[in-house]
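Folding Task

Wanted — backbone structure
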Amino acid sequence: MPLQFHRASEDLEIWSASSGGYSFVISFQSATGRGFRGRSGYVALWRPLDQSRGSIRILGWPLQSFAEAENACNSMLNYLRDVN
């Protein structure tokens, strides 16, 4: 089943989802404007829920659309399930 993202912040473009012991976050960043700074696009990150460690960025960033970022997260989740 695909991840179901929900808006995590009303003020910033941040979405989150979790499944199978993993947490995923998608955020939008831009060189100007409010929010995260960097090359314009969507950034996808993941981390295990049971470990207190930083998030790991999914390769291919910045992604051009939310759908691309969502697909990257779902692909990473499928990979993590396959290797564990």
